[in-house]
Amino acid sequence: MKRQIRTLVTGFGLVGLAACSTAPVGSSLDEGGYGNPTMNNIMVQTGQKPYAIQLAKRFAEEVPNTVNFAFDKAYLDEQAKAVLRQQANWIRQFPEARFRVFGYTDLVGTERYNKSLGMRRARTVVNYLVSQGISRSRLQAVVSYGETRPLIPTPNRERRNRRAVTEVSGFVKTAPLVLNGKYAQVIFREYVKSAVPTDGVEAAAASSSTSTTPTGN
């Protein structure tokens, strides 16, 4: 009798595990397969996810995260290069962070061609950021949405749809602070840096403290 009960319990347990295995925890957050939801869970548990979201928000608020392209082209004009130089200056402040570039097109042309064009645009952005001193290991140009996510839903040529967007994607695995989970130190570092006055402010303060005001009779 005990053996029969044990067999039934084991059977129900296997059924339960099979049911759970079809939907890994976090799968609703990322449709890229089992590995991505697992990574998402690890980032949440170790504290990386909240900091990554915060850093991504800062990046989008403090520098332009988008560059645009001419029709059917993947080269950067001077305006785009100026934006990417701003991005590079910001990225250098966070050596522990990684970034991903998404390439897009407008709705003119076939989906297959536009997906390839979107990827070329993303790679062009990555190559320019590398030319500005950013390590290629911190940059990814592996995703192209092609024509599937237009900002402006029109079948005609639309410059705003022909774009590449840079976003925070995670952290460099070899970064000491990331390995130790000490994200508060990173935040504190940036807080202290932002509180340091510039040379001009320091000079003005020193001049004000040493100058004397003549008094009248």
Automatic annotation (TrEMBL):
It is found in: Cell outer membrane. Keywords: Cell outer membrane, Membrane, Signal. It holds the Pfam family OmpA. Residues 1-23 form the signal peptide. Residues 56-172 form the OmpA-like domain. Its main location: membrane. SUPFAM superfamilies: OmpA-like (SSF103088). This is OmpA family protein. It comes from Acidimangrovimonas pyrenivorans. The lineage of its organism: Bacteria, Pseudomonadati, Pseudomonadota, Alphaproteobacteria, Rhodobacterales.
